[in-house]
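Q: I'm building a small set of examples for a reading group on sequence design. Run inverse folding on the following structure and report the sequence directly after it, with nothing in between.
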């Protein structure tokens, strides 16, 4: 069986957990706190970052490399899409959320409000959090625009783009930092992906001493 070294509220880890389940693959989940730079995670990945997937003799680091590996090694269920157009759009949107959204929103909200607390490296930067709260609204408007044009974000089929976006939004939703009520189409998209069986284990994740927002695991939020 594969092993996935992860942190429960790491969006990149969550993306791979979703991808594994959508592809019908099993993996042992090994929870780690990578910032402590302790144990096997340092041996597997010198950067001491998650996720790390161990598939037999292969050790794959970085969520993009892991996603590529899963597509190549287990192609029966593709998460990129059936057409060249959708596959290109899926890759573009994965980059959008893993780079642009992460820089403009995830790092400024999750990074400041939770990651600093877990790592014990100082107090949250209020200016950064205000910027993240402002930036997320533009991204929600973009998700709403995409979903009004398509059945899923990258096209007619669920894809890695949806899983990547949902992984980032989900950690922010844990903190109650997503203004869903102001962006109904984005909320409808998230409700649809949130109700999938692959998503349910994420809704069970908890961080000690920090309860999630009241609606976090409510499918009818």
């Amino acid at each position: 069986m594969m092993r996935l070294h992860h942190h429960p509220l790491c969006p990149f880890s969550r993306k791979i957990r979703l991808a594994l389940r959508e592809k019908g693959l099993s993996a042992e989940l090994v929870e780690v706190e990578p910032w402590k730079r302790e144990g096997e995670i340092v041996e597997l990945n010198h950067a001491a970052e998650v996720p790390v997937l161990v598939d037999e003799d292969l050790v794959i680091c970085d969520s993009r490399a892991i996603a590529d590996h899963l597509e190549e090694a287990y192609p029966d269920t593709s998460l990129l899409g059936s057409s060249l157009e959708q596959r290109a759009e899926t890759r573009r949107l994965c980059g959008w959320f893993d780079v642009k959204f992460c820089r403009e929103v995830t790092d400024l909200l999750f990074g400041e409000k939770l990651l600093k607390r877990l790592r014990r490296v100082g107090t949250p930067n209020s200016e950064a959090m205000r910027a993240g709260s402002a930036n997320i609204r533009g991204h929600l408007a973009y998700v709403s625009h995409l979903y009004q044009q398509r059945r899923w974000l990258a096209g007619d089929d669920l894809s890695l783009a949806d899983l990547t976006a949902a992984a980032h939004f989900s950690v922010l939703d844990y903190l109650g930092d997503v203004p869903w009520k102001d962006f109904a189409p984005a909320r409808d998209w998230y409700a649809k992906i949130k109700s999938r069986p692959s998503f349910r284990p994420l809704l069970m994740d908890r961080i000690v001493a920090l309860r999630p927002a009241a609606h976090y695991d409510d499918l009818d939020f």
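The beta strands are 2-6, 27-31, 52-55, 58-61.
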